[in-house]
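ok, trying the design again with the full structure, not the truncated one.
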């Protein structure tokens, strides 16, 4: 009885605490909604400076879900702009007479080089207005520096640090660990480079995987080196020498080598900004945050009846409805169909940021792209990654645009089955008995390995989908199927190389894709509309609370590397059906 009351009161306490937490989250949510609902436009004073701090993981679109960046300790939600608003605000600032320049904050940047490339190119356009960009940081990694290298002046804190040490990509192999716990993943794939799942069945990197990683990592590396060299008016050899010999070990080294322009403290940066903005020492410098600047009036808003649809295909490809982190085939297909049937939309731009996912879901989206292409131009804008299933849905487009450091290709297929017989029988003492009618009724059961006949059936299905994949790529890209097969095999390519082999047509970002779409549709004026429509923040509120709370506390209790590893394993273990997905994880740092 004593134990009964102990557990009863513990359960009651947990329920009460959960209720209190949900109550405060609800209050914070309502307050956030009230704040976001305030549409009052902000006026920017003359001689203002736009502050740009991009040291967070930038989403493709600014989310309206205030729980996405909710801090469960402070009960506050941080407003992080998506790439769409970042680019729009830099454009707006270039045309805004009240904005004299940009203050770019350097730090630890977690974004892909392709994302940074789009922002970097927009900053280069900004400089053409003769307005200044000043970059400053206490601790800056090479991604942050690559972005900031386009600034007119780059300053470091005298006690700070700048890391320029080259790029690496690590893969964690788990075969031995799985053997110890009694789990045997069974991988069926087509494509010698299809490395998705390889870390589950091997102890070391295959030669094929090492070859493709070396290829795309090298391309990204030299794009970074050449970009820094051009911005700092140095040779690529000089930049490589700085990296290979790790010549920057103190902030002063960066200045001596011409990588930075000086060492300053915060107050000295403020003085410099005042001077650049023509503000007297007695006045306070007008620093405008990105969140505040987003509320200023938009520029060059067209009222044209003609529209170009931007359809965001973001995240892993799954069947059904989209989520915050995945694109659902039903959601994306519905958006494409809606635009296809509306004569006011003259062209479609598919903005793809996806490593792929379900082969079946990819095919559902592909079909809608094919139907839409029959009635209006379709241009693909590849973001950080458009690989495997992400390339599958891109292949039929009239034109494919990517950044030189976009990750793409990975044209291959795999299936993953889990055999946990050893774990169940010998590790935890569980025995499974099955009664079945039909030889293959229990195909895929985790309590036994695949039979040779079952493996042959799955391999046949994988081969069939691969054959279909390369056929559709060949038709979409107007290439011979044998040629596609030779560059496919699951191999990952970087945009720079993908253009050489015919998988990509043009280099550029979303603006370039829109320009091509406009020309193909023979438009002089148009306005853009984004799809799918963003969810109302109140939709699925409480399910989001649970998910975001779990994510928050998991991140707090694990290192970033541990969280990334566990998250990757969890995704792999939940795959269902045949997958057209990129390799296990691509982490360039």
């Amino acid at each position: 009885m004593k134990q009964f009351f102990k557990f009863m009161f513990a359960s009651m306490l947990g329920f009460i605490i959960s209720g209190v937490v949900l109550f405060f989250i609800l209050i914070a949510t309502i307050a956030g909604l009230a704040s976001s609902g305030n549409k009052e436009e902000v006026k920017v004073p003359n001689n203002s400076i736009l502050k740009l701090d991009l040291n967070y993981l930038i989403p493709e679109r600014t989310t309206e879900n205030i729980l996405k960046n909710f801090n469960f300790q402070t009960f506050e939600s941080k407003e992080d702009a998506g790439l769409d608003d970042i680019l729009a605000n830099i454009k707006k600032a270039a045309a805004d007479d009240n904005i004299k320049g940009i203050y770019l904050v350097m730090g630890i940047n977690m974004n892909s080089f392709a994302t940074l490339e789009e922002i970097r190119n927009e900053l280069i356009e900004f400089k053409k207005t003769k307005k200044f960009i000043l970059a400053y940081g206490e601790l800056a990694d090479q991604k942050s520096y690559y972005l900031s290298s386009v600034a007119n002046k780059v300053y470091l804190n005298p006690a700070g640090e700048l890391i320029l040490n080259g790029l690496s990509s690590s893969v964690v192999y788990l075969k031995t660990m799985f053997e110890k716990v009694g789990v045997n993943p069974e991988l069926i794939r087509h494509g010698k480079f299809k490395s998705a799942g390889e870390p589950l069945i091997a102890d070391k990197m295959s030669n094929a995987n090492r070859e493709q990683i070396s290829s795309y990592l090298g391309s990204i590396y030299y794009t970074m080196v050449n970009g820094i060299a051009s911005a700092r008016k140095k040779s690529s050899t000089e930049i490589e020498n700085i990296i290979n010999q790790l010549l920057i070990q103190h902030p002063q080294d960066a200045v001596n080598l011409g990588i930075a322009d000086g060492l300053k403290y915060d107050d000295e940066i403020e003085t410099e900004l005042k001077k650049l903005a023509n503000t007297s020492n007695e006045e306070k410098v007008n620093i405008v945050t990105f969140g505040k600047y987003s509320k200023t009036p938009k520029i060059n808003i067209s009222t044209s009846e003609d529209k170009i649809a931007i359809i965001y295909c973001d995240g892993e490809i799954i069947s059904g409805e989209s989520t915050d982190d995945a694109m659902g085939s039903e959601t994306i297909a519905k958006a494409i169909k809606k635009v296809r049937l509306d004569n006011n939309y003259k062209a479609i731009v598919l903005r793809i940021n996806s490593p792929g996912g379900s082969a079946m879901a990819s095919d559902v989206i592909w079909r809608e792209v094919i139907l839409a292409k029959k009635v209006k131009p379709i241009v693909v804008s590849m973001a950080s990654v458009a690989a495997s299933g992400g390339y599958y849905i891109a292949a039929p487009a009239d034109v494919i645009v990517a950044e030189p450091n976009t990750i793409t290709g990975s044209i291959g297929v795999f299936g993953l089955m889990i055999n946990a017989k050893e774990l169940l029988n010998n590790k935890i003492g569980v025995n499974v008995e099955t009664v079945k009618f039909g030889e293959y009724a229990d195909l895929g059961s985790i309590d036994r390995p695949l039979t040779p006949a079952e493996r042959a059936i799955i391999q046949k299905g994988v081969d069939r989908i691969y054959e279909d994949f390369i056929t559709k790529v060949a038709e979409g890209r107007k290439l011979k199927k044998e040629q596609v097969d030779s560059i496919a095999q699951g191999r990952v390519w970087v945009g720079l190389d993908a253009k050489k082999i015919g998988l990509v047509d043009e280099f550029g970002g979303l603006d370039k894709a829109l320009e091509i779409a406009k020309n193909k549709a023979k438009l002089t004026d148009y306005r853009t509309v984004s799809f799918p429509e963003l969810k109302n923040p109140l939709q699925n509120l409480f399910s989001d609370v649970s998910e975001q709370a779990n994510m928050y506390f998991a991140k707090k209790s694990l290192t970033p590397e541990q969280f990334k590893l566990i998250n990757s394993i969890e995704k792999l273990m939940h795959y269902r059906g045949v997958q057209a997905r990129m390799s296990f994880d691509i982490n360039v740092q």
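Keeping the full-length input from now on. Confidence is low (pLDDT under 50) at residues 1-10, 70-75.
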